[in-house]
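Protein Record: Sequence and Backbone Structure Tokens
======================================================
Tokens: labelled as protein backbone structure tokens, with as many entries as the chain has residues.
Question of interest: how does this chain fold, as expressed in backbone structure tokens?

___
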Amino acid sequence: MKGIILSGMPAVGKTTIANSLCKEFGIKYYSGGDMLKEIAKEEGFSISGLDWWDNNDGMKFLANRMQDSSFDKLVDQRLMDLLNQGDVVLTSYTLPWLTSNGISIWLEASKENRSIRLRSRDTVSLEESTKIVNERDTKNQQIYEKLYSMKLGTDLSVFDIIIDTNDMNINQVCKSVISSINESL
């Protein structure tokens, strides 16, 4: 099976969908975000919890990435190597712009819906989750614009499948993604 690349802005549900795809298709999952966390750990950052990206250490590492693109380039190369082997689900902001190998899927959701999802996941206030989503969106867009001249979240022309998740629950999103993948095989 070709590799599957899930992309979308922060807190859209990439990890949840990736885990469902692994079960459905019997393939492995690799997270670009988890690979970045491993690099952050090697750089001396304290990594803890699923909400690490949203806490002070995660935001500090994000600021470091804005100054030093080597972290992101290393992750992208590792993900590309895995994608070329096939039988994988990857979550990545960048791979759909870097390769046409695999099936690339964009998960779309409004900032409001992503803030609500992040609030539920990280158990923070809606005000705090909205602030986090806005900051992560802006910084990720700046990093990838600088690194690859890509328009994260606005130029979706590189995707094979685009799914608007705004009016769906997680089960509906999973079914839609699986159906779309089966149709493209």
Summary: The mean pLDDT is 92. The helical segments are 14-25, 32-42, 56-67, 70-85, 95-98, 111-122, 126-148, 170-184. The first strand starts at residue 4 and ends at 8.
